Fold this protein.
Amino acid sequence: MQHTLLAMQFRNIHHIVPIATIVGSRLFTWLSSPSGNMQPDSESYLPSNWLNFEKVSFLGESTRGWIIPFIYSLLPSNEIRNLLQLILGSIAWVVVVLATDRFLKNTSFRIPNLIFISITASSANLLQFENVFLATSFYVNFTLFFVVLFLWMLFKNDFSVKKLLLITILAWLITSLKLISIITVIPLMLFLTWQIRRIVKRKVLIIFVVFNIVLLCQSMSAGINNDRFWKNSYSGTATLWHLGEQSPSASQFKLHLEEIGAPRCLTRNAPFSDIAAEMSVISRECSEGVVYLQDKIQGEFIRFILLNPQVALNLVAVGTGITFTSTASNYASVVTPIPRELSNMIFGNSSPDFRTIGVSDQGSINNRTLEPIWAFVPGLFLAILGIFLPFFSRNKSAVNQGLFLVSSLSFSQIIITTVILPSEWFRQNIQSLIALYVTSFLTLALYFSKFTFANSKTGPSQP
């Protein structure tokens, strides 16, 4: 009895510091800037006034998916909206703390894991997105809830109807936020379906599959329709970003479009220094260009990539490197006890520091400096370990398979995103990056804890 009480006390004590760090950094961030921060995209999410749902469309007939405009419209002020984002972030990361600590019970990696989670969750690199009005923080937090619940169900072998319903809703929310998430979500849901096929009742399995298909079709339909409203959005058609100066492929794609006879207005000023301004000019003065952007440019870019695979490889190399060195991203002010040196040990660093020369996106750095670029990418090393260590493990449990799937699919989504969306790579990839970091560290901890226990007289308890 005394041993149990001491164990409970220890568990509570070593949870206090990471939870206090996570919640405290968000509390002081809100107190320092309660109204949040604005970016050019923010207006496309925010309502003109309270309970105004004019930007909400479940069918995709808007510049944005329905979730964020809907949530923002329910809240009366930016102060409350900003507070909600920070509260949601606190809850998501506290759940990660408690769940991952449970996964690593009876291993020597519990404290290192809590330190790792504390730094990751409270770093300015991540926290900035919870203090700005964009979809990013919701995307990160819904992804965290999804990944933790997915792993917990495998770990506990608990596939209750409530948990199946919750993970289905989370999958729907994630794909509704960004359609490209189907790259990760669909394989994970298929894996989950395979795991439960002989555990749950046949009726439950059928309902689970049908429900997922219906919600996925809704997400895909709405996501495709959002593209039709590109001209009302600052971001615009994502493919047009490949003609911006931040894209390594801009000059080559411009030449390709000129060779095939694309409307001259699309390439005349490329590579663009201001994509938003060029989009505005095209939408007002070039109807031929508008039609081409809506109907042909995406297919032409795919053809361009297939004909020039070295361009895709260059985009992957540059975009992935930038994703793992986030020094150019600066979306909002934050207050955190985590110094930059510790954040750099996870999120990476580069020299020169692009923020000091006014670069918001690292893709355009070559236009600003001739200095050699030095990159420090510890997160990439962690990701590689997380993906490849399972191949050296004899443990083929569902938990290990699930960790491998989340890590490898998250990394795959990063690679594909860097090719499709050549702008703000760190922001576009942050949710995949966080899922990759959390699962890779868990994989690393489980693998080496088994190696450690194999050389001792005791072993870790089995899930």
Summary: Residues 138 and 459 are 39 Å apart (CA to CA). The longest strand covers residues 349-351. The chain has 19 helices and two strands. Confidence is low (pLDDT under 50) at residues 231-236, 453-463.
